[in-house]
Amino acid sequence: MEFQPVIMAAGRGTRMTDLNTAKYPKALLPVGNLPMVIYPVYMLERAGFEEAIVVVLDSQAAEIRKALVGVKLRLDFVSIPDANYWGTADSLRYLKDKVKRDLLIISCDLITDISIHQIANIHRKYDATVTMLLSPIPSQYRDIPTPGPKAKKRSERDFVGFDEQGDRVLFMASEADLDENIKFRKSVLKRHPFLNIKSGLTDCHMYIMKKWVVDFLDSSKAISSIKGELIPYLIKKQFSKPKASCDVGKANMSVVSEDVRPDIFTFSKVDEITEKIREMSTWIDHRGDMEDCFHHNPIRCYAHVQSDGFCVKANTVAAYNESNKQIPRVLADLASEKETIVVHPSTSIKGKSQVGTDCLVAEGAQIGEKTSVKRSIIGKHCTIGDKVKIANSVILDHVSILEGCNIQGSLIGARSTVNEKCELKDCIVGHGQNINTMGKFTNEAITGIDRMMEI
Amino acid sequence: MAPKSKGQRVELKQEDVLQAVIIADSFDLGFSPISKKKPRTLLPVANVPMLEYTLELLCAAEVQEIFIFCCHLGEQIRSHIRNSKWSDTSSPCSVSTVLSEGCLSMGEALREIDAKSIIRSDFILVFGDVVANVKLQDIVEQHKKRRRKDKNTVMTMVMKKAPPTHCTRCREDDIVMAVEQPSSRILHYQKLAYQTKVDIPVEVITEHSDVNLRYDLLDCHISICSPQVPQLFTDNFDFQTRDDFVKGILISEEIMGYAIYVNVIREEYAARISNLIMYDAVSQDIMSRWTYPLVPDHTNSTESTVSYGRHNIYLSKDITLARGCKLEENVVVGRGTSVGSNTVISHSVIGKNCKIGENVKIRGAYIWDNVEIGDNCDIESSILCDHVKVYSGVTLQAGDVLSWEVKVGPDVTIPKATVLQSSPEEDSDDFGDEDETLDKKDTMVESCPDFGSRGQAYVYSPPTESDDEEDEAQVHDVWGQDNKTDDEDELSSIATDDQSDLSSEGSLPDDEKMFYREVLDTLVRAREENIRTENLILEINSLKHAYNIDIHDLHGMVVKAVVDLGMKENPDEKGIQLLTNIKTHMKRNLTLIKNYIKGADSQLDCLQMLEEFSIMDEQISGVLMKLIHYMYEDIDLLSEQVIVRWHKSIPDEEGHLDVKQQMQPFIKWLQEAEEESSEEDSD
Fold it and tell me: Subcellular location, in the record's words (chain B) (predicted)?
């Protein structure tokens, strides 16, 4: 394979602290009763990759390694120190010596059935610097009730500007960074007179990038995250021209205290053969003027917009919950056969209980009498008492739900206990919580002990 | 047409009548002085008056009722229509002229149309100088469909997709639009003119999920309007042009809710002849048949038939072509014209009854009716109006315009882009296209220099538009002069939130400058207020932290500041005088400098800064060697090893090399001194 895959599994889950990601690695949160990180691994396997680098935190390395035992992919675990709070770009910099070819970077929270070749094709076609995967946010996604308190929705929208073919990314801005006016240069508009700006897209954190980008990262230490800094920087730099080459030479030779850092264009050199090929080829990426292919832009960013299929990025509680709900539908395409069994044979379900076909029940779960489970996921070794109703909910591992509870649209963290006759609607219950008898909650996040005292 | 009556059935019928309004005036001076004598819309393009193209377009779109709104020299248009096929009983549509001599803008024209209440349904609004083969029925149909859905649809603008460098894109209306997808609704409309940046309000993209920002559109100046458009012009009496209208509607969009849409055509041809450059471009397109079926051999409005031959040669009847004359390609020759032998013509239009002599070269010229051209002339990209006489041996260069009845020659060369008219006096009645308000002084008419012994020609220079503030941003192209392409500024990104560099990189140089200024000020203040050196050092140190200055830069800048102080005191002094000044300051601030310049590294910093400084400043460069000598010998600031090391490290580059050479004698002296001392040691 021409690409070298890297799975970024060192996230701290700062956007889902309610699930106690500080102690429990985010990469191992179960989606469809499988640890999240397994999905990117399977995706790479499906695409025919044989090895991959997995970036993990020092403290979580052992756990994640254990969870991934038995996969076909040869995994090379690289652990980064916990203390430094490194971003994704920092991790890449750390990996520098291992990078031999162009990189394929996947975040561990990406769950999709998209086939990698679609992105790779765009990357190859345009000889891109970076190609990313974008996915439209389905409209119903925004309206679904999310468990937990109804926080005001912080706008995290990104605006992405495409060229006429819809492949090249010319512009990217997040809503928070925008001023009253957006300025565009006329000279750029001259070369790209058609700019299609879309706002309903999310970056899936899957990138294919040229090897030299890592070399560039090594020289500019200020960049710490790929999504937040590196990608916007590359997109912006697409239209600037490299300084005259003699300038660069000068900067390198003089020992003067001025900034001797070589700029990004010294890294993006195209080898002679490629240049010759491009010169002789009749293929051109644009119409309307007589300029050469790519207008001599050494940096080019492209994107593949996923149009059909399944694609969720489980990096927030809402998205995590949603991915769990959707997973039974697509699990068969994403995981191996033995992992896609709806109800594990080792579960014991007592009489008169109903478990819908749209549910997943993991091994060792015990379900009591007259209990109904609909559109829900029940984790490993859960104990569910009699006359419990569970609908639209996600129950993580080792949860005990006692008799007569009614749980709807909620997310219950691992090792929690829900005592008798509780009613939970659209709630998040954190890791290891104990909910007292007859507790009634709606739209709440139950995470700390002090919360429990209120009842 | 059906008489107006209030019956239900008649009203239904009226809905079906497609109306069009032709504004047969451009309200600008794009064609003056030619348009003084004849309105622009009647000027010939490929030997057919412009207005005919517009009428053919509307006729093909099955428009039944056409109103031609004429202002300047409207009577001529009226009589032209009266004598044309459009007034025949067989004419497929009724064409009527609306005359209003005093009208000064398109806004006024539409207000008058509103007052006359002749518009009953959706209508096509078009300028009389548009050449197009667009299928308007479909666009009108789409407009109607949109209006049925949303009553507030007021206009659909017809645009053609054309890249920014397209030759029929008029630089005077260079537009950028933001269009919502998939509705094609216009969200933002901006004329660019000389601006290098485009400002898009952020709401345009935040409130719509899919927006196209388009700079690849050519304005066809054809718009499908809803019946309320004239009314809106009346309500907003400050709307002068369609641009005003579009901007006004977009700004008040939230209040009034009116919407404007765009219809982008790809295949068809459309362009407006708004100035001489466009006249040239469109004429060539007509000859190359881009405008089919509007081509010279198809326009049946001319009385004579035209035959079409290979290489796009269009010949009328009764033409005399002498032996050896060559019509190369894209040539139209009108009836009764004779061409002399060995004459070569290409990419040109020649009108009726012209006489062209022998050995004449004509390229890209537009020669109207009854023109006489003598032998051995060379004519390139010029316009020669009716009854122009060019005597033998004349050279016309690109962009020359010879207005009605001008005579030039013999044996002269007319410089590029010269506009000539036959009489110096201004007739205020038919001044330009419209501007009767401008007084005569504005149009400067110089009496003719020598345009040949038999010449009768006066230079016309267009009026200066000092009083027209709103036109400031407009581009005025001059035919024949190369269009200056805007500077391809080195841009950092498509969206110019500059300083897109990584935060640390981008802000550093500024900080350094600020820091340096602060240090300089502090030193001046220290001397004035007699601040003690320890406090001064403290102050500079705190500045260093405030501006986050590198320690190496700090060393250099402190020394530079002290040297600078000496220079600033008496900026005119040079040589010894300057050196003495600097020395005094050095001596005074010696404790300060010594605090910073201690080890070899800091000395090197100091020397490098001096090196930079001397490259930037000639005065310093003059005293550099002596200054370093002083710093070495008298105040013992620099050690000789560091100086030698620094000298070796100076790169062999422009500027730096001078410093190196300048320092050579001193270094030599240093080394000799060293050798001597070492010799002494060995003794």
Answer: Cytoplasm, Cytosol
User: Looking at chain A from residue 243 to 272, which residues have their Cβ under 8 Å from any Cβ of chain B?
Assistant: 250, 253-257, 259, 261
> Does A74 share its domain with A167?
yes
- From residue B10, alpha-carbon distances to A435, B7, B15, B52, B95 in Å are 78, 5, 9, 31, 21
Residue B224: burial class (beta carbons within 10 Å; 0-12, 13-18, 19+): buried
Q: How far is CA B661 from CA A16, A204, A250, in A?
A: 66, 59, 19
Structure confidence by residue, pLDDT tens digits, B554-588? 777 888 888 777 777 666 666 777 778 888 878 87
Hey, are the CB atoms on A194 and B502 less than 8 Å from each other? no
Residues of B in contact with A200 (CB under 8 A): 209-210
* Chosen from A256, A259, A307 to mutate, greatest number of chain B CBs within 10 A: A256
H/E stretch holding B544: helix B533-547
What whole-number distance in Å separates Cα of residue A228 and Cα of residue A223?
A: 9
**Tens-binned pLDDT, residue by residue, of chain A (455 aa):** 689 999 998 887 777 776 766 667 888 888 888 888 989 999 999 889 999 999 998 888 888 888 888 888 899 999 888 887 888 898 998 888 888 889 999 998 888 888 888 899 999 988 899 999 998 876 555 555 566 555 545 556 788 999 888 899 998 888 777 778 888 888 888 888 899 998 888 888 899 999 888 888 888 888 888 888 899 888 888 887 765 444 444 444 444 334 445 677 777 777 788 888 888 888 888 777 777 778 778 889 999 998 877 888 888 777 888 888 888 878 877 877 666 667 778 888 887 888 888 888 888 888 888 888 888 888 888 898 888 999 888 888 889 998 888 988 888 888 888 888 888 888 888 878 888 888 888 888 777 644 444 33
What ipTM goes with this model?
A: 0.80
Q: Do A228 and A371 belong together in one domain?
A: no
Report the C-alpha gap between B168 and B265 in whole angstroms.
14
Question: Domain check: are A300 and A426 in the same one?
Answer: no
Homologous superfamily in CATH for domain B19-272 = Spore Coat Polysaccharide Biosynthesis Protein SpsA; Chain A (3.90.550.10)
**Which residue segment(s) compose the domain that A167 sits in?**
4-179+187-241+296-327
Q: Which of B493, B498, B516, B609 to mutate to test the interface with A (most CBs of A within 10 A)?
A: B493
Cα angle B69, B72, B73 (rounded to 5 degrees) comes to 100
Residues in A closer than 8 angstroms to B166, CB to CB, are 288
The Cα B189–Cα B198 span in angstroms is 10
Cβ–Cβ of B192/A186 closer than 8 Å?
yes
Q: How far is A263 from chain B (nearest CA, A)?
A: 10
Alpha-carbon torsion B617, B619, B622, B628, what sign? negative
Tokens of B569: 């005191």
Report yes or no: B449 and B412 within 8 Å, Cβ to Cβ: no
Residues 140-169 of A with CB under 8 A from B: 157, 159, 161
Q: Which CATH number characterizes residue A88's domain?
A: 3.90.550.10
Q: What is the CATH architecture assignment of B511-677? A: Alpha Horseshoe (1.25)
For residues A258 and B557, what is the distance between their CA atoms, to the nearest angstrom? 13
Q: How far is A288 from chain B (nearest CA, A)?
A: 5
The SS3 of residue B269 is coil
**Predicted TM-score of the model (pTM):** 0.72
Find chain B residues with C-beta within 8 A of A265's C-beta: none
Cross-strand bridge partners of residue A80: A57
Contact A199 B208 (CB under 8 A): yes
Residue numbers in B near A305 (CB within 8 A): none
